[in-house]
């Protein structure tokens, strides 16, 4: 496949092949004849790293010596996806790599496949962080991503015979990992526990009980055509107490390594929850571990070799963006560092701290905001709890001075005496708070953080999320990228995505529309081949590919999709609809459920069994096909999204903060069926209401239903198709006759249905007719798909970063 738009390095393919040979020989000690594709992957990766090294060092040097404030993006998750192809693209070495690998006698795909995706995130939040650091580097903003190098990332998902989810550990570091540079000489000490004592002069000193060594593992983040290579610094926990000799002498070996195990557990595993709060001590240890190491690292970087740095200039050197509440303990930590370690007074420390931090909120439900028991913070971080208490006293005095009434002050407490509310601490302790889509930011102000918005209206801002067009268009969809470049006559759209608007007139050019349709068709054939190879599935690329991929969560409403699908199946089985009249559709799901999330896991089981029954039923053969490729990750997203005709963004209105999957689909020419939720609202505004399949209740209608006492059974009784679908789940059709298998799920639908799946069913089923009528007119369908691509340039993460620069960070790119 041609990669005509890559910025090409002057290195020839033959030279690059030599560089790979050299790495094979001098790094790995194998000959080309002995080498496996995995060896070539490592050697090629090391060779690309060498090409990026000068730019990386220059970027770091200019960042420290220059006058441009840097961005520190603090995030517990970075869902990077594979590195090699992205690095090749940005180093301008894609074509040379293709040829070099061939010359060495290897298959391009085998080498690419040898890379194990680092799954250091759960879903949207972690992927957003990865898109943002790509954009920061591509725009040329000096930046660090700071996070944790989990030894085990998000679990690998498999399905058992019954279609149930099995979680397997993700051993991503067991093979050579050429991208992360472990820098033992730049490690930091992070301490926990113990007590606080008062010094003779009245100052406080923390006497911690134990410490771990935070070792940075550095990943290069090359910008596309910017010449800049930023750093993603992920911390790994190492023990100081390698061996307790005394204990060992008593030959109690396991006891001797206990402290080491305890310390190193901190970076052992990524919590597999998505948006549900998890009150685990280890999680708080993780949060403090990476934030404390990162703050000390930034001081080391920006005040090199200085014992007494002038930290009043810290906010001019770096601004820390808190990606959700996970890093919020950084606020009391910077206070502690300035007061206890560098001797500043409280007011100076507070002024620096509030100027340094900003907070991105990803949550809508007040009950989902992270809260820590004060007892736990007191135990792990006693000095921080004291600082938080003092912040609370100062905050209350400030509110009283502002004339805020007592009831509201009570509601706004950061520290209640029992608990610490991290979102409130972040809002008070930083300069800005932003939501991640317009609707979400409005709801933050009106509901979730209303008291704060009323008191501090100037703190609140919106920055709508975005995705990187380099990974999600250029790498994922090279055919469409080439067609866009052909249509626009330039490849500059890859760094200026609003240029896609220039495609709009081509939606009326039948020749272009046919080329666009051919790209989609070829991508579908590719995906069918991929699904055959990876999963053993037989997808028919001549059917509509209808995709729903995202974490499995009740609010996202995979249930709505599966119930509508079952209703369709029931129509055909009952003879209400003739199979001949059914437009053939292939429905593809991808989703991981949190291991402890019972109803989500049961929904996965149901989908798998609906797939089994429907795909084996001769009555619907070729008409309705359901597939659930396991282990949805960035790699699968990159293969599936470009092949999708119709994507599903059907969350209950007011629950999805933004979504970014929706943006990836629109940019790849899928049409969306969706609710007025998150960024769907803005996507629909931009692509045009006539090019978006809207259905379902609005936020206000949802609120009215809650207020009136929502009764799902009413919908079950009033829509016979919904009733037939739910009855089919109950009657054992998808559980070999066992009527108990899905009983808890059915009971939840009929008596609780908190996210109102049943209430939206009728509207969702009704819009399917409209979708199928349009799909029957391919030219019209693809015209609308082109208009989706043309009008989605706004959803580039480059634009999100420009918005952060302007509204929140007040900094820019390096000269
Ligand atoms: C984009 C992405 C997500 C987020 O999808 P939403 O539909 O916005 O929830 C999750 N996982 C992966 C692997 C992604 O690439």
Automatic annotation (TrEMBL):
N6-(pyridoxal phosphate)lysine modification, residue list: 664
EC number(s) reported in the record: 2.4.1.1
Gene3D superfamilies: Glycogen Phosphorylase B
Gene Ontology biological process terms, A to Z: glycogen catabolic process
Pfam families: Phosphorylase
GO CC annotation terms, alphabetical: cytoplasm
UniProtKB keywords: Carbohydrate metabolism, Glycosyltransferase, Pyridoxal phosphate, Transferase
The protein's required cofactors: pyridoxal 5'-phosphate
Catalytically driven reaction(s): [(1->4)-alpha-D-glucosyl](n) + phosphate = [(1->4)-alpha-D-glucosyl](n-1) + alpha-D-glucose 1-phosphate
Matches recorded under CDD domains: GT35_Glycogen_Phosphorylase (cd04300)
Molecular function via GO: glycogen phosphorylase activity; pyridoxal phosphate binding
Signal peptide range in chain numbering: none
NCBIfam families hit by this protein: P_ylase
Task performed by this protein: Allosteric enzyme that catalyzes the rate-limiting step in glycogen catabolism, the phosphorolytic cleavage of glycogen to produce glucose-1-phosphate, and plays a central role in maintaining cellular and organismal glucose homeostasis.
UniProt record similarity statement: Belongs to the glycogen phosphorylase family.
UniProt protein name: Alpha-1,4 glucan phosphorylase
